[in-house]
Task: structure prediction
Amino acid sequence: MTTARVDALDDTRSDWRVIAPDLDTAPMGTMGRILRIARLATLLSDELLKAHGLTRGEFDVLSAVRRAAEPPTPSQLARSIAASNASITKRVGALEAAGLVLRERSTGDRRVVKVVVTPEGRERIDGALPDQLTLERELVGVLGAPERQELEGALRRVLLECDRRAEPAVT
Result:
């Protein structure tokens, strides 16, 4: 028989049960774990990406530019990675200063600026992405394939609900 291990959220919920026994803390267990996983995975990812000369924000932008069928505008990037226009401007500026992207005027409308990955940017993201995927594979590797698929489906539903509720804030 396997005994379930206790994590930080179990302790938090236990503390709240003492303080407020009538309070349903079940959502705290779910959302708290999602948020804690995100924070810890981000810390691990930050260290990995630093070795590639990228911050997480720069990685996200460079990845979005690299996979886009057509060079995106900064506004399209903001929507794609759920970031503010100001943060995109800062990240694109840093990537441009590092020679990883260029801002180019659209040939169809000179008022429109597109973000284009440079050969050095392509090389950088193509080098970082496999390492990032290895880290992610290792982290979710504690789950079997059926568990991962079930978790992915459940998280997709939660994400779609969050997207729906946050829509006005991120567009």
Summary: The mean pLDDT is 93. The beta strands are 101-105, 113-117. Helices lie at 8-19, 26-50, 56-67, 74-81, 85-97, 119-140, 145-170.
